[in-house]
Design goal:
The complex is a heterodimer of chains A (217) and B (181). In chain A, 41% of the residues lie in helices and 0% in strands. Chain A is elongated and about 90 Å long. Chain A has seven helices and no strands. Chain A starts with a helix and ends in a 21-residue tail after the last helix. Chain A has 217 residues and is mostly helical. Chain B is mainly alpha-helical. In chain B, 69% of the residues lie in helices and 0% in strands. The radius of gyration of chain B is 18 Å and the shape is globular. The two termini of chain B are 31 Å apart. The chains are: A mainly alpha (217), B mainly alpha (181). The interface between A and B is large, with 41 and 55 residues.
Chain lengths: 217, 181
């Protein structure tokens, strides 16, 4: 490799690239050969290099990286745990950490002050039961004001079950009230029919009026 | 001149054979030391040891046989030298005061000659640093244009131009010396 013949070949290539082979090129070739002759002093190996030359395997950098990564991970985990124990994490993170810790770990981590997700369902769903909407009073335990209800599954094949409009259109009458003919009786049915023929029902043109905002009819 | 380094020796060194590892050191270390000195390192011997401290544990991962090991060694040496130059730039600069200068030799060329590098090497200080880098890597490392380009982070064409201009400048200096005689 780095012996005289290959170095001479390299020098010849370099000088030949100049495109001239005269006395100047010969002097240049001699100069470059002198430069190549500088690589004649063998430095004394240091203690570390001497160990490596004996075949000693050093503590590899990859292992150091793994150790460093493990240390960083442990610090991050410890910091998160400490912050969660003192309820200092942001609410979503605090909620997630507290749920995980309370479920899987033998420690009790406080929930956030404003929970992101309710811990227990407020209204259990009974899809097979006939629907009698009875809202609990606002003071009832477990009631959340202005909380949108989850749509309850409706079994339209069940006897006596009326189909409800799931999405009320402001131009159309509101959804029909849940009826149970067996329990409400005739008077209730009449009232329901009146509701269907109310002022906003499209089938009652007499009572349908269009109010012009400008005051003209 | 160092002995030749073969692919078989590199294979033995990968298996951890001490004789092969020593052969690699004896083959490459003189060129590394000369390169670092020729580029003006203040601690060429120390950097040479750092190069092998980094090179030898990586032998199993090096591809390309003996040429690959040699190219990697000079790549490490070049990087260490750049680091040294950067450290120097970050250091405090002292204004030159000739009365405080206790050196016996006035110029870098004289110093090179005093250290036994020869008058020929002193000529290398007259060309640009990049030109000197290319010429030293090609001769001392016996590296190809492609390997040299990869080490210094330039294109092959740029390296070829640097080499050509450096050699032309050296030849012009030699012609001027000849004319003065």
């Amino acid at each position: 490799m780095n012996d005289e013949s290959t170095t001479a070949t390299t020098i010849d290539e370099m000088v030949a690239d100049l495109g001239a082979d005269d006395h100047g090129a010969a002097r240049l070739r001699a100069l470059l050969a002198d430069v190549g002759g500088l690589a004649s002093e063998l430095p004394e190996p240091s203690t570390g290099v001497r160990d490596l030359l004996r075949g000693a395997v050093p503590f590899r950098r990859r292992h150091r990286r793994v150790v460093a990564a493990a240390a960083i991970g442990a610090l991050a985990l410890g910091g998160t745990s400490a912050a969660a124990a003192t309820n200092r994490l942001p609410d979503p993170v605090q909620s997630a950490v507290s749920e995980f810790a309370n479920d899987h770990l033998p420690v009790n981590v406080p929930h956030p002050v404003h929970p992101v997700h309710p811990v227990h369902p407020v209204h259990p769903v009974h899809p097979a039961k006939p629907v009698h909407p009875t809202n609990p009073p606002f003071d009832a335990p477990g009631h959340i004001r202005n909380k949108p209800k989850a749509p309850k599954p409706v079994n339209t094949d069940a006897p006596g079950q009326l189909q409800k409009a799931t999405k009320p259109d402001p131009q159309l009458p509101g959804p029909a009230r849940p009826l149970d003919p067996g329990s409400f009786g005739r008077a209730h049915n009449d009232k329901a029919q009146q509701d269907h023929s109310g002022p906003n029902h499209p089938g009652n043109p007499k009572k349908t009026t269009h109010v012009d905002q400008s005051g003209k009819h | 001149m160092a002995s030749a380094l073969t692919d078989a020796v590199v294979d033995d060194a990968r298996r951890g054979e001490a004789a092969a590892l020593t052969a690699i050191y004896e083959s490459i270390a003189p060129g590394i030391l000369a390169y670092l000195r020729g580029r003006g390192s203040w601690d060429a011997e120390g950097l040479t040891q750092e190069v092998f401290t980094q090179l030898l544990p990586q032998l199993r991962k090096v591809s390309g046989g003996a040429a690959g090991v040699k190219a990697l060694a000079f790549t490490i040496a070049h990087s260490r030298l750049v680091d040294e130059f950067r450290r120097r730039q970050r250091g405090p600069e002292m204004p030159y005061d000739s009365e405080l200068d206790g050196r016996k030799h006035g110029s870098a060329e004289d110093e090179v000659i005093r250290l036994g590098f020869g008058a020929a090497t002193a000529l290398l200080t007259s060309i640009s640093d990049e030109q000197r880098t290319v010429i030293l890597l090609r001769i001392l490392g016996d590296l190809s244009l492609d390997e040299t380009a990869r080490i210094i982070g330039k294109s092959v064409g740029a390296v070829k131009q640097l080499q050509r201009r450096g050699l032309l400048a050296l030849r012009e200096q030699l012609d001027q010396q000849q004319a003065r005689r």
